[in-house]
Amino acid sequence: MATTARPLVSVKALDGDMATDAAGVPMPHVMKAPIRPDVITFVHRLVSCNSRQPYAVSRKAGHQTSAESWGTGRAVSRIPRVGGGGTHRAGQGAFGNMCRGGRMFAPTRIWRKWHRRVNVRLRRVAVASALAATAVPAIVTARGHRIESVPEFPLVVSDSAEGIEKTAQAIKVLKQLGAYADAEKAKQSVGIRPGKGKMRNRRYINRKGPLIVYGTEGSKIVKAFRNLPGVDVANVERLNLLDLAPGGHLGRFVIWTESAFKKLDEVYGSFEASSSKKKGFVLPRPKMTNADLGRLINSDEVQSVVKPINKEVKRREARKNPLKNAAAVLKLNPYFGTARRMAVLAEAARVKARKEKINSKRTKLSEEASKIKAAGKAWYQTMISDSDYTEFDVFSKWLGVSQ
Amino acid sequence: RPQMSSEAAKVVVPESVLLKRKREELWAAEKKTKAVEEKKKSSENIKVIYARAKQYAEEYDAQDKELVQLKREARMKGGFYVSPEAKLLFVVRIRGINAMHPKTKKILQLLRLRQIFNGVFLKVNKATINMLRRVEPYVAYGYPNLKSVRELIYKRGYGKLNKQRIPLTNNKVIEEGLGKHNIICIEDLVHEILTVGPHFKEANNFLWPFKLKAPLGGLKKKRNHYVEGGDAGNRENYINQLVRRMN
């Protein structure tokens, strides 16, 4: 909370104001309060209950009969039935919630709890948070206000605005400030409410325009602005969450008068000093003093103790069967290759040795004898190939010789 | 464009960025040296593993030859060579998990045989023999030979690392699990199991119980003992045939 470097908000001068050389008003501390949409939703929901009017069904409804059950034995259900005769109503079921003309289930009662209490501090924190949100143009735009032509945020107007009496002049002022687009949007949005509300004295609805906040009690500004649809007026000492965050949504477009803006510090205090108007109230402190995560992470203090980034993805090693896959075996047992090779060579050598041994033990045929043997083998081959001739097919069939 | 470059030369680089750059250089350098070191270590390792595998192969050959020689010697003298009793057993559970006496169930759990056709290696001593005797109708066991041990560990070997069942795809897994007992490759593991070495307990416990398939060709008769023509109990060397069919 660098209160030493509080920005200055310039005050917009209206036509007819004397030219001042004032640098501006320092930003009040409320505008730096933490923005807590969760607190605001909570408080807004509860606080909205407080202007409710009770509704209930008539106490007598459904019981204005002297119906009695006919009991069993009459082939009808046991629901109490209206006595008497001569009319449709006689014998009809009564009293039950299932009966036509009967009392409803759990008739609504007026002693239902309509209002909710909210802790004072919570209420104040919610308003402070909502005020902080009104200073952020992004949030205000997100809420839907037309603030494209507004020169500065927050928008502070000189105190001559508090003297405005006529609505025509009020419109002129809004146009000067670039705030008329928002007010115009509200004016054009007037329409008939969908639903039963239109027959219950809530016929017209419209969007919310700017909220004018004034500082001095009894200013004529209230009367000037109050007829403008969508435009609300509020005294800075009595700011309402339902106006600052309508519908529970942060970021109402607020137009401050100079005296109102200056009073904010008095009304809400600062983060250290308690407010003078709200006894013992100090603005809530944010959870993180520096919420810029990017800056924090990339700061030297963090980066110096951080481990190197690890981008390698450890994937499962495909399991290959070493009894079948050569690469898998060699990975496990590099000696396998040599062992196999040696075994193969040894086997080949063994086979050869055995062959030689046998051959040496066999009686050697003489040259002549081996020639004769070879000739005999050759003749056998020709005999087989000869019998392959197709000419002899019929002959062989006749003979019954199988190939 | 030329204007931008002259402007860029005047841009002040924040100190944090400079520090980060320096740090990243340091990390990159560290990573590189580590990678180089690791490569060197692994290449040295391969040499060691090669040498050991060779040594074991020779050892196994020598053992086989010795056995033959001793037998021949004894036969020549007219006597008999009785080979020493086996030190290693392979136990396979052949029955399911239903309707079991709680004590036998517990013993099978202690033997890490929680599922049908699970197999474990077991050291032979009084304690284990007595345990096996109590669970005899549920298991088939015998004395595995080198081929059985090797094929089981190669094909169905998984190690217990960090309580997880990790396949033995490369020797790093084994080194991580059993490095402190000087078992750094799969051949070391096979040797330790086969010869029931000094760190058999750790090596065996490192091996997750083998999940074998149901034997091709079927079992003879689960309900009977092997000697009665069934499958349960000690079948000594014939366990190897069973392992061939189940692996």
TrEMBL record, chain A:
It comes from the Eukaryota. One of its GO terms (molecular function) is structural constituent of ribosome. Keywords: Ribonucleoprotein, Ribosomal protein. InterPro entries: Ribos_uL4_C_dom, Ribosomal_uL4, Ribosomal_uL4_dom_sf, Ribosomal_uL4_euk/arc_CS, Ribosomal_uL4_euk/arch. GO terms for cellular component: ribonucleoprotein complex; ribosome. Pfam families: Ribos_L4_asso_C, Ribosomal_L4. Residues 279-351 form the Large ribosomal subunit protein uL4 C-terminal domain. Gene3D superfamilies: 3.40.1370.10. GO terms for biological process: translation. PROSITE patterns: RIBOSOMAL_L1E (PS00939). This is Large ribosomal subunit protein uL4 C-terminal domain-containing protein. It comes from Aegilops tauschii subsp. strangulata.
TrEMBL record, chain B:
It holds the Pfam family Ribosomal_L30. Residues 19-73 form a coiled coil. Residues 13-83 form the Large ribosomal subunit protein uL30 N-terminal eukaryotes domain. PROSITE patterns: RIBOSOMAL_L30 (PS00634). InterPro entries: Ribo_uL30_ferredoxin-like_sf (IPR036919), Ribosomal_uL30 (IPR039699), Ribosomal_uL30_CS (IPR018038), Ribosomal_uL30_euk (IPR005998), Ribosomal_uL30_euk_arc (IPR035808), Ribosomal_uL30_ferredoxin-like (IPR016082), Ribosomal_uL30_N_euk (IPR012988). It comes from Aegilops tauschii subsp. strangulata (Goatgrass). This is Ribosomal protein L30 ferredoxin-like fold domain-containing protein. The keyword Ribosomal protein applies.
